[in-house]
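In this supplementary section we document a worked example of the pipeline. Step one takes a protein sequence of length 315 as its only input; no multiple sequence alignment statistics are reported here. Step two produces a three-dimensional model, which step three serialises into structure tokens for compact storage. The input and output of this example are shown verbatim.
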Amino acid sequence: MNSINKMEVLGKASGLSSSNPIPKYHRQQYLLALLELAGGVLSKMDLQKLLFLAEQGTKNAHYDFIPYHYGCYSFQAQSDIELMESRGWLTIDGNHLNLNGSIIRHLTQSVIQHIKYILAKYNAYRGNELVRYIYENYPYFAINSKIAKTILSQEAYQSVQQSAESLGQEQSVLFTIGYEGLTLEQYINQLIKNDVKLLCDVRINPLSRKFGFSKSTLSHVLPQIGIGYMHVPELGIESEKRAHLEQKQDYTRLFKAYRLTLPQKTTGLDKVKRLLEQHQRIALTCFEKEHDECHRHCVSDHLMQTDNAIKVVHL
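The serialised model returned by step three reads:
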């Protein structure tokens, strides 16, 4: 092996390369630093749980979490782990993560000290003990857990049940929600906390460059936590008509023209009405944060005008 190849191998082993010396995003550096300061080896579950605890009380969280099958879970963190394995920064060995190289020299002392504080505070908690601690102190994140009843005391499990029951709502509501400015986890938490039973995607092309918001991900993840997914392309607006929307009058013209087409979109509108009758609490979704900058409000307005019993809430 020549010297250049030796350097390439050593670089990969230490997590370094001339083309990609450190991970691009600070959150990824933070994740690796936590792994390094924890001794370089953690189970996948322990890393997720320690990341969660490290984010509590911070103003600018690196990751957000949802209540998933084993408690708090970040899809973004898991995606970053897979990416960083492909780049040689860490190795996935079964259920464990092994760090390759060192990252902490690239982080500020305040960040390092915060991670050290978290690791020292929860040093005695690993595995089920760590999971149990989070379930007892953050019961919302245990509401979808497969193991809560097994590892918790009866009293602690009742707290989890109460947290789940507090989210239940009987009133029929047609919600609308945009994912602009939200992480996948923040978005899903809004659906959970409003007891949404079904998400109706009214984008004509349900693809997004933003992590987690393409149909392939939403249609897979949401049913795992009891929320259905339905694509309703009949109510979408063609991409070319959405181009060059820069000023308020551009949106006004677009939505005026779109409203004129709604009486002909009976297939999509009737589908949404049937789904609302069936599931009681459904949400129309598209990209824009503000509902009045998105065609979803035209759909909800039209449905409300044709049936005044429909209650609309814009999230």
